[in-house]
């Protein structure tokens, strides 16, 4: 590269990306380490989730932000694999630096990388496998996703919860975190957990599941407010009449609710409810839960199979269900049982808020990858064995490519091997011995039909990923390769950084 300014810009961008990659590289794998993130206010996050680390980093360099965008795309599409995509992107950039030193033009490197990505995806489709037993495959993919995370402390219970959450649906359940207890106390609720209770205290009957008629209301029950700025003088009699008139509509709405419920019941209201209306309804055995978030109201509607009414005057319908009030860590919750399998609530328990946050992130990844598999996706062997197989295939195909582009394809193959190498390194073993051993096995079995060898993180050397049931959705690997390729080629095409005017 003859242009000194262009070369300096490119190498600066590569160095900025390398800093980001090195930050998350040590978190990869079952024996990856955690990061302690601290902000200026002293607030902390302890996690080994790559997406969370990159999202919380204080980054100002534009090239580093491009790497973080790569991770965000991976998380949005596949929920997991963010660390892998960033590590591959970083290695692609590092290898491109060596190609540039040998005289290859950045555009030629980009073309070679795009061809290599296409060949890798074609090979990946050949390596994909259809789940023979969906239940076993879901267990395997969930255990792979949570290995090395906080959830691994109770792997069987977590796997069962994830499978129950997706039973009959691919929609992820609502998640609510309740401090206190341990991970083993987490449970799946068929229905909705409302993190509020009634305005006035409930009767003791609700300590156990109680059959209740329920109405959902989208509007509030408060005296209408006027925008007119009017000053009037009233005596006590006139003031009483004015106040009575303002409450008349509210009390009429309350009567309509009592009539629709036909006795003891509960009304969930999105907006506010006046204290006089609450007292009147309570006197007639109707409890009020007010200021419910719209998302919770909609979940209740789907779960109970009852519409959300916009006003009490439109002819309301109620539904009977079981409701229980529970007090956890001095906070009261309402557990509302539902019938729809599409609306479940995953109640996560943990000793501290920090632990709960990491538990929620782990469940989000596990639910995401399980949903990918259940939606009809294939799976591939994990532990870096698939990346190594793709690298072996690219080296074989590179020999048929003429010119310097062959060097870029081989550099792409070397970059893919960074995944098993990092897994071995983070486990305290020699990454070079691991890669050389995997290449030998792939020479004998390039399609991994008999064995899928990957790094043995506990004892060193290699072990069969198929025997250990270490699998991951094929879409996860595909997106990681595509995201890494796109961000790398985008950075290689940058020849200068200029300031743009403020908008």
Please describe the topology of this protein.
Layout: H1 4-25, E1 35-38, E2 44-47, H2 50-56, H3 62-78, H4 82-101, H5 106-127, H6 134-146, H7 155-165, E3 174-179, E4 187-189, E5 191-194, E6 210-217, H8 236-261, E7 265-269, H9 275-283, E8 286-289, H10 294-304, E9 319-328, E10 331-337, E11 345-350, H11 353-374, E12 379-381, H12 385-398, H13 405-416, H14 418-426, H15 431-444, E13 453-455, E14 462-464, H16 465-468, E15 471-473, H17 474-492
Parallel strand pairs: 3-11, 6-7, 7-8
Antiparallel strand pairs: 1-2, 4-11, 5-10, 6-9, 9-10, 12-15, 13-14
Helix pairs in contact: 1-3, 1-4, 2-3, 3-4, 3-17, 4-13, 4-17, 5-12, 5-13, 5-17, 6-7, 6-11, 7-11, 8-9, 12-13, 12-15, 14-15
Model description:
- By secondary structure, this protein is an alpha+beta fold.
- The protein has three domains: 4-129 and 379-492, Orthogonal Bundle (GROEL, domain 1), CATH 1.10.560.10; 134-187, no CATH class; 191-343, GroEL (3-Layer(bba) Sandwich).
- It is 50% helix and 15% strand.
- It is built from 17 helices and 15 strands.
- The chain has helices at 4-25, 50-56, 62-78, 82-101, 106-127, 134-146, 155-165, 236-261, 275-283, 294-304, 353-374, 385-398, 405-416, 418-426, 431-444, 465-468, 474-492, and strands at residues 35-38, 44-47, 174-179, 187-189, 191-194, 210-217, 265-269, 286-289, 319-328, 331-337, 345-350, 379-381, 453-455, 462-464, 471-473.
- Strands 5-10-9-6-7-8 form a six-stranded mixed sheet, with helices on both faces.
- Strand 6 (210-217), helix 8 (236-261) and strand 7 form a beta-alpha-beta unit.
- The longest helix has 26 residues, at 236-261.
- 44% of the residues are buried.
